[in-house]
Design a protein that fits this description.
Two copies of one chain form a homodimer.
Chain A: E1 3-9, H1 14-29, H2 44-52, H3 55-62, E2 66-71, H4 83-103, E3 108-113, H5 126-136, E4 140-143, H6 163-172, E5 176-178, H7 190-207, H8 211-214, E6 220-222, H9 233-242, E7 256-259, H10 265-274, E8 280-281, E9 293-294, E10 299-300, H11 304-310, H12 316-330, H13 334-338
Helix pairs in contact in A: 2-4, 10-11
Chain lengths: ~350, ~350
C-alpha cells in the first residue's frame, strides 16, 4: 500500500472561493464582522468531478493508493479577519474534506485545518479539532506556526500557549503537520521561500525546546522534506552540540518526521541518506505548488514516488516503511480507518 | 591559492562590545539619540592578538590562504536604534576590518558592513560603501535583506529602492553577500533558521525579480550554501517554469553565487552536484555559528575545505575555480589587492 501523507484539496468547486470572497468583503466593511457559517451549496457530483479528474486520476497514474487529505494550505489564510472568520472558514473547509473522504473512503483519509488566528491562543482550536476527530473521523491536523502570514508576530511553537493543544493531540493520537499558509508579506513567495523557511523555523523551534520532553508522545511532521534541515544537518547537529543538547537522533527524531515533498532526484537522495527511514513519510503534495513536467526527467516534478523508487540505497524494508509503515505509526487512527 | 570568501571578525577585543552597549544605553534613554562616532581605543597589539590566536591560527591549521573578512554579521544589528546608530557603528566596525587587513595584508581582504536601518532607503548606505571601497580598499559588502531582524517589515531585494545601491555596486565592481544579522524575533534562531531562511528568501526574491535584467553585471553571493535552494532545486526550477520564466541556469545563475558554508560532507556533495562549479565560492565562516568538532568525522564542523577535498566528483579544474578562480571573478577588486 502506498500512502501519500500530504495532499490538499486544491481543486475545490468555485463556491469555496466565492464563500471566502464574501467573508473578505464583509471584513472590508467591518474588521470585527462575525457572520455565520452559512452554506456552500456544493453537490456531491461537483465534489466527485473535482476529485476524479484531478487527485484520483493522478493517484491511479502514479500508482499510489491513499492520500491523507486536508484543506488547501495556501487558502487557510489565518491572517485574514478574526477568530470568527477562521472558525467558520475552517468548519466549511473541514466539512468538505469529510465529504471527499466519505465519497472516496478507499482513496482519502481526512486531516483538519485549525481555526487559528493571530493573537488568539492555539487552545481555541481544540473544539474544531475535537469536532473533526471525534465526530468526523479525522486522523490529523495542520498546525500553522505563523498565523501572521510571514511577519512571525505570534509565539514560537516552543511556547507554552501551544501546550493545551499538544496535550489534546497526544490524547487523541493525532499528529500535527506543521504548515504555513499564504504569505501576506511581499518579502516571501508562498510556496517557495515561505513554506521552506517555515519548515526550517518550526524544526529549529522544536529541537531546542522542551516540547518533546513535556510531550514525549507528540508526533510532528515537518513537510517539504524538512525545509533546509537535512541539507544543513551538520549545522543543526553542531548547534545542538554547542548548546550541550542531546544529538538529534536521540532527541528530536523520536518525535519529528519529514515528508518527501522534494521535487528532484538528488534532493530526495539527500533526504533518504541523512534522515533515518523510520522518520520519513512518503508525500507528494499533489496537486500543489509545482504543476509542471520536468524537461530533464520527462515526469511531473511532484511525482515523488519515482524518486523514491529510483533511489539505489534504500532497502525493501525501508521503502515499505516510507510508503506505508510509518504512516500507520504516526497517524494512530489510520489503521482503524483503513481496516475498520 | 585557497580563498575563504566568508569570514567575520567574531573575536574582536572587548572594547567593541562596550561601544555597542554604550550606544544601546543611550538609545534606551532616547530612541532618537544621535551621538557621535567616538573612539574604540583598541591598540594594534590587541587586534593582532585577537586574530593570530584565532582566525590566523585556523587558516594555518586548515591550509587556507586568504579570508575575505567582514564585521561580525550577528552584531550588525540593523534593527537597533536609528540611522545614526547604524552609521557610527558601521564606521567603527569597518575601520576595524581595515586595520585587520592592513596588519595582515596577505591573509585578509576587507568587506564592509552597510549602515542599513529599518525604513531608511538602502541608498543611504552608499556613502559608507564609497568610503570603504574608495578610501580603504574594500572589495565587497554585506547586504542585509531584513533590517528588522526577523519581522521582514522592509522591502524585498526586488524593490526599486535597492536600485541606486545596485547601480553603485556594479560601478565599483563590488559584489554583495546577502547576510542577515541577529534575529530580534523569538520565532527565529539567529544562526540556524534565521540565516538559512533569509538565504532562501533572498534567492527567491531575486530569481523572480527584474534585478538581473536591470543590472546584468550585478554579482550576488548567497551564503550558507544558498539556504534551502540547492536541496529544493527541483521546486525552484518548477516554480520558475510554471511562471514562464527562464531556467535558473540561463537566468539567475549568471549573477548569483553560493558559498560552501554547509557543515557536513553529504550537504556539500549535494551543493557541488546541483550548482555549477562556476557559481560556487569556497567559504567556511570560521570562527562562526558552529564551533565544535563533529564526533562522526573528528574534525570541526566548519572545516569545509575537508568536504570539498573529499568530494569524489569534482575535477581539478573545478576545484581550483571553487577555491580561487571564482573569488577573483566575483570580487573584481581582489586581483589588484592580491597582486598589487
Amino acid at each position: 500500500m502506498i500512502i501519500d501523507c500530504h495532499g490538499h484539496y486544491t481543486t475545490t468547486p468555485p463556491q469555496v472561493g466565492e464563500y471566502r470572497e464574501q467573508q473578505k468583503a464583509a471584513l472590508a466593511k467591518d474588521p470585527d464582522h462575525i457572520g455565520e457559517k452559512g452554506n456552500l451549496n456544493i453537490s456531491d457530483d461537483e465534489i466527485r468531478d473535482s476529485i476524479e479528474t484531478n487527485q484520483l486520476r493522478l493517484q491511479r497514474e502514479r500508482g499510489t493508493d491513499l492520500t491523507i487529505f486536508s484543506p488547501r494550505a495556501s487558502w487557510m489564510g489565518h491572517h485574514i479577519g478574526n477568530q470568527h472568520t477562521s472558525r467558520f472558514w475552517s468548519e466549511q473547509q473541514n466539512d468538505l474534506i469529510h465529504r471527499v473522504c466519505t465519497l472516496f473512503p478507499d482513496n482519502f483519509a481526512p486531516v483538519a485545518q485549525l481555526p487559528q488566528s493571530p493573537g488568539v491562543s492555539p487552545e481555541k482550536s481544540i473544539p474544531e479539532l475535537l469536532r473533526c476527530v471525534e465526530e468526523m473521523g479525522f486522523i490529523g491536523c495542520n498546525l500553522n506556526p505563523d498565523t501572521t502570514g510571514g511577519y512571525w508576530k505570534d509565539a514560537s511553537l516552543a511556547d507554552k500557549t501551544f501546550y493545551p493543544l499538544y496535550e489534546k493531540l497526544v490524547e487523541l493520537e493525532v499528529p500535527a503537520m506543521i504548515h504555513v499558509s499564504a504569505a501576506c508579506n511581499d518579502c516571501f513567495h508562498t510556496t517557495g521561500s515561505h513554506y521552506l523557511g517555515a519548515d526550517t523555523t518550526a524544526f529549529q523551534q522544536l529541537i531546542m525546546s522542551d516540547v518533546f520532553k513535556d510531550f514525549p508522545d507528540l508526533k510532528i511532521i515537518i513537510p517539504h522534506g524538512g525545509g533546509a534541515a537535512p541539507y544543513h544537518w551538520g549545522r543543526f547537529r553542531g548547534l545542538m552540540q554547542d548548546r550541550g543538547l542531546a544529538p538529534l537522533e536521540q532527541s528530536a527524531l523520536k518525535n519529528i518526521y519529514f515528508d518527501t515533498c522534494v521535487y528532484h532526484q538528488r534532493g530526495i537522495d539527500l533526504l533518504l541518506d541523512i534522515i533515518p527511514a523510520d522518520n520519513i513519510l512518503f508525500a507528494s503534495e499533489m496537486i500543489g505548488a509545482v504543476r509542471g513536467i520536468d524537461p530533464e526527467s520527462g515526469h511531473y516534478y511532484d511525482d515523488t514516488k519515482r524518486y523514491i523508487d529510483a533511489n539505489t540505497k534504500l532497502t525493501d524494508a525501508e521503502r515499505i516503511k516510507i510508503f506505508e509503515g510509518n504512516a500507520f505509526k504516526v497517524f494512530g487512527r489510520l489503521k482503524q480507518k483503513v481496516y475498520p
